[in-house]
Write the structure tokens for this entry.
Amino acid sequence: MRPLYVSDLTAELVFWSLFAVWALAELVTYVRLRGRSLARNRDRGSRFVLVAGYWLAIMVAFAFAFAVPSATITWHSNAAFYVGAVMLLGGLLLRQYAIATLGKLHTLDVTTRSGQPVVEVGPYRWVRHPSYAGAMLTAAGILLCSTNWLSLFCYALVVAVYAYRIWVEERALAEDLGAPYRAYMRRTKRLIPYLI
């Protein structure tokens, strides 16, 4: 994708390099975890909803960037592009940090197991879903890099699918991990420290 008002070839290289690193990191995570089964599956189809909605938002955003040039962001488009690139990279790093912190507790589906601890270290000290916060920040960065106003509206779909996933996960963890997780919920925010 070459944003219309960011004609710098460097910007194109930056975007596609970051996009490729992000896609590869997600693919590696999927391949590493796809066969893992932890006790009780509580997913309610949220993995499918999440993956389908996330990729649909990105593909529609790309389509808008190419097909609707009249919606191109012209006001400080270079700055918007590079802010988006930083968001993409920051989200990627946050997500990978959160995944590494969870270690074997990280799964593709919402699952619980007997004796599962409440993780409160690393980014989990500050928010309950840093992996999702990272993924949402990455999506925001990708959409902003498109430098298209219509593409930015696709973020509503990203928010909707993560809202569903978080609802499913928190319900399962509160029921299965009990009082320790409910106390953790009272002490922390979902995605942004002290705010959301």
The longest helix spans residues 77-102. The mean pLDDT is 92. The domain at 48-106+115-187 is CATH 1.20.120.1630 (Four Helix Bundle (Hemerythrin (Met), subunit A)).
